[in-house]
Amino acid sequence: MSTQGSAVNILPDLQRGFRPAEAPARWGLAAFSGRFAEILGGEASAALTLAVGLVAEAQQCGEPAAWVSRCESSFYPPDVAAAGVDLQALVVVWVPGPGAAARAADHLLRSGAFGLVVLDLGGDARIPTALQTRLNALARREDAALVCLTAKERPESSLGSLVSLRAEALRTGRTPQGFRCAARILKDKRLGPGRTFAEICRGPDGLC
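RESULT FIELD:
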């Protein structure tokens, strides 16, 4: 997993068909607050990198964050710490599958204590519609960001129609400073799709 320990934002917003006043200034937690979101990416994508960046931002803003992960996830604490995340302040919940992950997110959001909850669902990303409805309502009520990470290619279907923001995570190449990571907005119920955000991210030792 690549991390953002020395990230340099080189391309904060490629506007495609939007006036500047209509789009957020950058990729960040504010774009996800109060929303049920999905970040998708196939093998070797930047999904984990982008999500860890949101966790670091949440902590910097004083918002408690939680990470719900499958036991086989590639979540690696040393890389997460290198990205600027305070591991002692991060709640990590290990679960056997997507159903358990969704139920854990329900409890976390219902507590009202978290500004960001990340669900690392992997390739087996299935959440019943009734539970999605409840999670979406809780995220809106608590003004919390619920971000689901799914390991799928872009043509594959979304988690569901309730997803308010859907982005494709890409790792588009190397530079002397690290990896170029990008997020392409595929769906946005507030602003519409089409924007792309990119930045340079430092990879783990030995990768760049």
